[in-house]
Design a protein that fits this description.
The structure holds 2 protein chains of 2 kinds. Chain A is mainly alpha-helical. Chain A is built from 3 helices and no strands. Chain A has a single domain, classed as Helix Hairpins (Orthogonal Bundle). In chain B, 60% of the residues are buried. The chains are: A mainly alpha, B mainly alpha.
Chain lengths: 117, 484
């Protein structure tokens, strides 16, 4: 019997692989950014899955209930931070892509002449 | 005693304050005061951290789920290097940067870079390490793209792509460690890996090394460095080459030796270091652009440090730390002077600097001295650090160590060839005006000259500091050697 956690682990590794593959293969700068986002998403799913408990509860203490069957809140806190950082990096990358487009009139990495790619 | 938290709070506070005031002079003075003040604070703590076997601990939240920050001897030494380099580079920036309204933001981002550097040496749990690493990366991306030329934008984008892949690997490594240990504190994870299946430890260690290796410019994942360090403003190249990559390298070793102590990565690191030396020197040898040449030379110098520390002996780690100090001074001075060569002539290629030594004699002479020290010419500081690394490798013995010695010696020959090519061009008869460059008016401006002179004095007279340093180096290098 495959558990939900196993499916989620498989999904997260698939997403990381797809994302990194896109970064390596794509020449379009926007698609590279999207690839990084997909890989980031995979890592976030991996982190949340680490704290997953089958049939678990929201990790908030209420009267009369202990810590049994709570999902682990720490990976969730980590994921929140990671999402915020990922968002910031994405915005900065898109800004750069925009500036590169203004400068060169293209977002094809193979046609940028400033550096060797 | 003031909390080590000050190292993070003060620069962050200064950054927010100066952007809200938005006046150039205030931003400059505020950032200079913050950097210099924290440097002095670091010096005042150095004796205490050297004597304490246990680091000074400051926890924002106590307990197993708390956020632990602590300052040990290595951390204090690194904090001093960071603060002093930043102070001098800010002084240089005051005359080097073109005047304009973006200046305030530049100083603010430099403060963020400094705060995150301190955070990296203070953090004692892997997730905070990750957060500070990200702040360091993001501020570097912004500073690299500062001049917004085509090359700078491309270099910054390339750096961001590699940096983001690196941070994905670090996050997976953290996830794996948390899965095994159920905690994020470095001490707990280290404890858990002693009993956990070995495969977990190896996977987490390799992923972490790959992720942090991007920032530390370890051999296969350093392709961003020559572009980023040569397209950034020269003041930023000096910061990035001077301490950012070295800091990341030392953090790699500290984490490797505390968290992943069960995994023996040292032979791998030695091979990577040696490859870095060879590849970096050969690439630098082929460069015509002065700043690209210096950037490739950074790759090989980081390779030397990596090789020295991964020898796994006390002597190797100590020699590595000395080399970090020497390289911080020499490479900063070289990049800063190169910045003024470019500013004055409008040219980047070495061949265009023919005869520049006659128009900027002091700058050219300082460049020569710093280059000689980087090369390891006696009796300058660089000679002693390189000699210590070679003798540490010889006493460590083994085939890899001898191969490393051969690589470093070969690298030194190549380094001599390309650095002397630059020096010879600078002092050659002829004139930059004749080659079509702009008319060179003068030496560096006074603040920049002072900053460069201090860096150069460090690498020229550094050997005189050795007796004083040798009493401190023991505790400082301790954290870099694996205690089995």
């Amino acid at each position: 019997m495959i558990s939900i956690a196993q499916i989620l682990y498989a999904c997260s590794f698939a997403l990381i692989t797809i994302g990194l593959y896109a970064v390596l293969v794509q020449r379009n700068l926007i698609r590279i950014v999207i690839g990084l986002n997909i890989a980031d998403l995979g890592v976030n799913i991996l982190l949340v899955t680490l704290g997953y408990v089958d049939g678990g509860r929201v990790p908030i203490f209420t009267a009369g209930q202990g810590a049994q069957h709570m999902v682990d809140p720490i990976p969730q806190a980590l994921v929140l931070t990671a999402i915020v950082i990922g968002f910031g990096v994405t915005v900065l990358m898109l800004t750069l892509v925009m500036r590169i487009y203004v400068k060169y009139g293209t977002i094809d990495a193979s046609r940028l002449r400033g550096l060797k790619w | 005693m003031v909390s080590p938290m000050l190292f993070i709070i003060a620069p962050l506070g200064a950054a927010f304050l100066m952007t809200s005031i938005n006046r150039r002079e205030i931003a400059l003075v505020l950032s200079l005061l913050t950097a210099a003040g924290l440097g002095l604070l670091g010096f005042s703590w150095l004796p205490a951290t050297l004597e304490l076997a246990q680091p000074v601990v400051a926890a924002a939240i106590r307990g197993p789920m708390g956020i632990a920050l602590s300052l040990d001897a290595l951390g204090t030494a690194l904090a001093i290097i960071v603060a002093l380099s930043t102070t001098l580079v800010l002084l240089y920036s005051s005359s080097y940067l073109p005047k304009g309204h973006h200046e305030v933001r530049y100083y603010a981002v430099v403060m963020l870079l400094m705060a995150s550097s301190f955070g990296l040496v203070l953090a004692r749990d892997v997730f905070n390490l990750f957060v500070f690493f990200e702040i360091l990366c993001i501020s570097s991306y912004i500073l690299v793209s500062w001049e917004q030329t085509g090359a700078a934008l491309e270099a910054s984008f390339k750096y961001m792509v590699l940096g983001s892949i690196g941070s994905i690997f670090i996050l997976v490594s953290i996830a794996l460690s948390y899965h095994v240990a159920g905690s994020l504190a470095m001490a707990d994870i280290a404890q858990a890996f002693r009993t956990a299946p070995k495969a977990y430890g190896i996977m987490a260690a390799v992923l972490f090394l790959f992720g942090f290796g991007v920032e530390a410019a370890i051999f296969p994942v350093n392709t961003w460095l020559p572009d980023a360090h040569s397209s950034a403003p020269s003041s930023i190249s000096a910061l990035l080459s001077g301490f950012v990559i070295e800091l990341a390298l030392l953090v790699v070793f500290r984490v490797q030796n505390t968290v992943f102590a069960t995994v023996d990565m040292l032979p791998v690191l030695q091979v990577l270091g040696i490859s870095g030396v060879i590849v970096g020197e050969f690439a630098a040898f082929g460069q015509k652009d002065l700043k690209r040449m210096l950037a490739y030379s950074s790759i090989s110098q980081v390779g030397i440090m990596l090789f020295a520390i991964s020898l796994g002996t006390t002597a190797g780690a100590q020699a590595g730390v000395y080399h970090v100090i020497m390289h911080a001074g020499a490479k900063s001075a070289l990049f800063l002077i190169a910045g003024y060569f470019i500013l004055r002539t409008g040219r980047r290629l070495v061949e265009d600097y023919r005869g520049l030594g006659q128009r900027m004699p002091v700058s050219a002479a300082l460049f020569g001295l710093a280059a000689l020290s980087l090369l390891g010419a006696p009796p300058l500081f660089g000679f002693f650090t390189k000699f210590m690394i070679l003798s540490a490798a010889a006493s460590a013995g083994g085939g890899l160590a001898w191969f490393g010695i051969a690589a470093i010696l070969l690298g030194t020959v190549l380094e001599a060839l390309y650095l002397f090519r630059v020096i010879r061009t600078l002092f050659a008869p002829g004139d930059t005006v004749a080659t079509g460059g702009r008319v060179v008016r003068a030496e560096m401006d006074l603040p920049a000259l002072v900053a460069v002179a201090v860096f150069t004095a460090l690498v020229v007279f550094g050997a005189l500091l050795l007796p004083a340093l040798s009493s401190m180096i023991g505790p400082i290098a301790n954290g870099l050697v694996t205690l089995h």
